[in-house]
Amino acid sequence: MELNKGNRLITTGIVGSIVAVICCLTPALVVLLSALGLAALIGYLDYVLLPAMAIFLGLIGYGWWTKSRCAEESKTAEVRKG
Fold this sequence. Notes:
By secondary structure, the protein is an all-alpha fold. It is built from 3 helices and no strands.
């Protein structure tokens, strides 16, 4: 298993969660959609952003689990070599 995979998953999850939270809790996306003339889509933002935030938080958890599993496997491999 790749040692750096857990770190990349955690980083991706954190960045995605921050973007989803910024779009949910601030009017940034509302202003952007209004400026683009897509204000009719504002009512559907919760259907997209809340599941996206849940997916990214799940990605953080999976990355954390992968990282701890890689650490355990590397310790087991060191014991076998030694």
